[in-house]
Records
---
Amino acid sequence: MTARTPIHEHITDAMKAPDLIRLGGDVVLARFETMKVYAALGAVRTLLRRGRIVPGQTLIDSSSGIYALALAMACHRYGLRCHIVASTTVDAVMRAQLEVLGATVDQMPPSESLRLDQERRVRHVRELLARRPDFHWMRQYHDAVHYAGYREFAALVAEALPDGPLTVVGAVGTGASTGGLVEALRGSGRAVRLVGIQPYGSVTFGSERFSDPEAIIAGIGSSIPFDNVRHELYDTLHWVDFRHAMAGAVGLLREHAVFAGLSTGAAHLVAGWEADRDPGRQHLVIGADTGHRYAERVFARHAEALDVRALRPRRIHTLDELRPPWSVMEWERRSHKELVVADIGSESGSSVVGQEPLTQGEPS
């Protein structure tokens, strides 16, 4: 008997389910319209169930884009108000959607750096909370409640992909998406490797001494530490610059007709290299969003894109060896603290994985 096509009660139910697309061999892409619907829905439902928030209350957070939309949709579904302190990177299309959904949007002015943009947003959130203590700060990068929604995604993956060893490849970002998925899969007894991706300039895995002038990969790194990143979950780390992420995104569209964002492009690039090293093992590529935000600055420049087949990473063993444009290091599930100890006394003194936060509070 043919299964019926479900009729959803709300758009978030339709959006949260990814399209699973085979990219060749044992590599499968989970391509989302907005992956953070899982994070926002899971967090809001959990907070409502625990009584930490109530219908009609205002939820506030800062965002560089897709979490803002996911939170606005979750608020729309559950009768909550939404207030977004938006990054300068939030475009007119995204802002219009947020406003029509009823969200209040305070957008930061153009900024010369990610760090300054984040610091302005954190400061503005704190100012609003001082005036409105009834607001609930979602703290997407620090409140572990955002892990909850990804258990549902893990169940979908377990059903769709054959039993056996699995490698998950995705941008680190908040830590909740890859972390929540992999914790749930490992908790079921499955052997899972987690391969994380970072941009240059992010403190999350120690690349803050570098800058990437063209970088616009919103949301996959940070200028301040995130509590939701559980370093001990990651087996391997790749650092990828804008040009390589662009090559992956354009290559994904050219080879597979999949229009996806830069973090997905970076994951596509990395997964291809990882799969070549470990043939026969299932690889799941996380595609967090579509390519619409990058239409002009990436896809309109497709003629400039590098050939993904010709690209290879630099293998490194310590963060002192880290160099652009693409490096890979076996992280070996070390904790944040263990890596700091391992790198103490390096000649360059450039490894600052364990530094104190650059600013207190909530980024992006």
---
Amino acid sequence: MKFDTKVIHGGQTHDHETGAVMPAVYQTSTYAQTTPGKPVGDYEYSRASNPTRTALEKALASIENGSRGLAFSSGLAATDCLLRSFKAGDEIIAMDDLYGGTYRMFTRIYKDSGIKFHFIDMNDIDGFKALINENTKLVWVETPTNPLMKLADIQAIAKITKAHNILFAVDNTFATPYLQKPLDLGADIVMHSATKYLGGHSDVIAGALVIKDEKLGEQLHFQQFATGATLGPMDSFLVLRGIKTLSLRVQRHCENGKKVAEFLNNHPKINTVYYPGLESHPYHEIAKKQMKDFGGMVSFTFTSAKKEDAISFLEKLRVFTLAESLGGVESLANHPALMTHASIPEDKRKAIGITDDLVRLSVGIEDIEDLLEDIKQALS
């Protein structure tokens, strides 16, 4: 199947008893057994598996070309499940520009676990290689990153991780499988905050792991079952419904995102625009190589470099909503330093470029003229 067909039919079947086109919401915690240890069907307890969640997990595996999909109660729950694979003495190399919640988990939740974390610009290949040693067990990359839209060359990193037998995980939340296929490019694991583009309607909190290797998929499923951060049936249904329109939505996000980025790039009050579709973007060539299009996320700073100008802009917006999160059909605006990345210490934020005048936009699928007019009036 081609991708636009996969998002609708990939891994899916009609209900064999009723012919229902969409899977039922199996709002149940447990399943009848004919005798102890022999359930009527394939299900025993919904923490282990649930038919609605199974339908979603099959769809996730299909659209990312993986062997196993797992659906979690949030993106951070998915990340946590993977990190439970490691022990004291292990080392993890991560992208220096990360979602604030990921950074918080790595540096605060796991700080006393004995796992050592290194943060580096993954485009510094020599610096990356220098960090690898016999204790290195995982490389964690976001591409594009949140919120600076930095990219990493997935194929180049995968060659190195394979040579050293290191697991390679990619947070594909911003790109989505419509734009980028990390497993096809050499990664071992893909993570999604399915709250964002996969769900697509700002009405569900969910996460996902998609794994290339079947044995590793089984291990991670056991860790999920044993720790319990599974996605409920109604939320699974909502994400599965969102996936069916993923291609159409992301295509429109890309169209609008490009026009917003170009408008901002030519505005006298704007200093730097972070959007991989602009030729001025330092990683534009990597984006062209590994992405189908450039997405709907745009960040920018002001020529004044003043925090007050960023806040004034955000307060004036009328079509864009000032809120955390991203990837919904509606356009959202965010101040990373005060909102999504506030958990990162100020000195580290500034070191990687998250300044107090940085604004991040999640460009939605509204009429582009309304979006541009809203930005124009907020900048006046």
---
Amino acid sequence: MTQAPESLDLSLSINNATDKALDRDCTTLSRHVLQQLQSFSADAQDLSALMNRIALAGKLVARRMSRAGLMEGVLGFTGEVNVQGESVKKMDVYANDVFISVFKQSGLVCRLASEEMEKPYYIPENCPIGRYTLLYDPIDGSSNTDNNLSLGSIFAIRQQEGTDSDGKATDLLTNGRKQIAAGYILYGPCTMLVYSIGKGVHSFVLDPSLGEFILTEENIQIPKHGSVYSVNEGNFWQWEESIREYIRYVHRTEGYSARYSGAMVSDIHRILVQGGVFLYPGTIQNPEGKLRLLYETAPLAFLIEQAGGRATTGLMDILDVVPKKLHQRTPLIIGSKEDVAKVESFIQNGH
């Protein structure tokens, strides 16, 4: 008689754990977006459909990468140079084409703007009703592709303002607070999608057996301070003295660890989970830096701010920067609030 309650408690615990597991397994990306918006309105369904399209692009890219070493013509360079003056990898071209193909079928996106294309790509058949623009970096860290290291895709969604009748997409030249969604896909040991629609940051992992991105963590909060600093120290002598002095500070201060993979999405994800700071400063010769505002820094800033962190050029918040051209570059300091503030103090005060 005395064991019956214990058996019952054990049975209830198992049932509760099973219920939680089933609930977690059922929370797909599209369902989660609708839950976040607490609506089945047309706008909510549009956003859910757009996130589904981004997820589909991620699945296709992940599948290609998983077989890259077994297929001819997948790895290496194309021999061409993109609008940024960078050598183009074959995976860059493939991933860019995947996003275009996937969104051609959406009916919702009129334009796609990518760091791989000089001008936006228009989908005329979508433009009469398509009210959205996708901005994206199809493959971030493509130098890692041939080495079987982690890399990612970065994306942002904006609502089209005006008719864009001249085809110049000038309405995109607004600050990052105009983004209605942003996130990244991380291609690593598992394929992970992290996104925000302005209601927190949430992560999903691709379950290959289901072909679905399944919710793994909601409302991620970045620690206020972390031990990790992530920067390419090979550029040390090209930086302004204030950045070099910050690096000297972390070198002589106990508790800091350097982590840098060459794939920004991978490094940013580590910072999101563990805390710390990622830096990609400008150089003396190129003070604007290397990273593109619309395709890289603004989407990541939107995400990190939603998680309680900060992103800045060192002088102003990334989300307040108004671009003058589609491919504008910015320096980036992003991560935990306290760590970003420490870097800013060196830039603004020299200590």
---
Amino acid sequence: MPRVLSDERRDLLAAIGDFCRRECGTKEQRDKLTADGREPHNQRLYEKMAALGWLGIAVPEEYDGAGRGMVDLCLFLQETAYGRAPITGFGTTIIAAAAYERFGTEEQKRVVLQGVTKGRVEAISMSEPGAGSDVGALVCRAERTTGGYLVNGQKTWCSNAHIADHILLVARTEQGESKHHGLTQFMVPTDVDGLRISGIDTMGGKEVNDLYFTDCFLPDSAVVGTPGQGWTQLMAGLNLERMILAALMLGVAQRAFDDTVQYVRQREQFGRPIGSFQALRHRIADMATEIECAQLLLDDVAAAIDAEPGRMFMREASMAKLKCTELAKHVTLEGMQMMGGYGYATEYGMEALLRQTVVSTVYGGTSEIQRDIIGRTYGL
């Protein structure tokens, strides 16, 4: 079923698609931009997109952005993911920027939001060695001192901290009866004294980091929003985070599907294209149907968020994240299976798409957490 898009949105997608084909359309180009896949974010390419005005798609116009909504953001994310653009810093940047837009001071907004439009990267840090899905269990402390706070503790799995200008840190400033009470958000420059950033090796390359805070002083002006209300502020950004991950992974799923279809049309065994065999043809049909369903879900939720931007869509956003990430992992695995040995070879790119999707059902709330959230919205 063709998507109903305005001419303006079709033109935007065409422009992004053309850019990706020219700049990173071949494996040789992508290898050069990513140091053979070890560095999934290329700052030079990212700044080229900023110069075209695309990175400010979700930034308000008063901060030099385009002021567009969730539908347009999802379109951009899908198309860049489909085009395999190495700009992994964009997702965390938009998540952090939205928090500053909602709760930050005017100076924080100016620095971060205008930085987004210029191609600067932002990060956000919640997880700790003992606090992953249970974010409220975090123990990294920010203790009151003269003129600000002293931060001590370890954070982990912080995406893009090594390339970011700032980290939106969630730390404990009070100990209350509820574990969700007493959390505060801080704007932390990545070059501040008392912070050490250490990369974690992953199958996706240089993506995530450990953060070590040792008597790291943050002035009062570093507080984002209201002290002690960090949990409530985090909850306000869940729609955005889940939709970003859903859109990115749906773009990857569509790319893996198209690459698989192209391969099975051309690859011949037993005297005919392997796609003509019923076993593969039916698998292709199932994947195509699931991708179409996921697209309709994502479009519907994005449009609903734009219609009511202040409303929490807990069930719907979780459904979109769950469906798109699980589907992307399934499609890339199916693509590798149907391509046989060539799917496993780096030359054809399917293994790289698979590596992208494997972690998507873990970060941003695991699939198990998304299912639990959806179930609880039905009173279970």
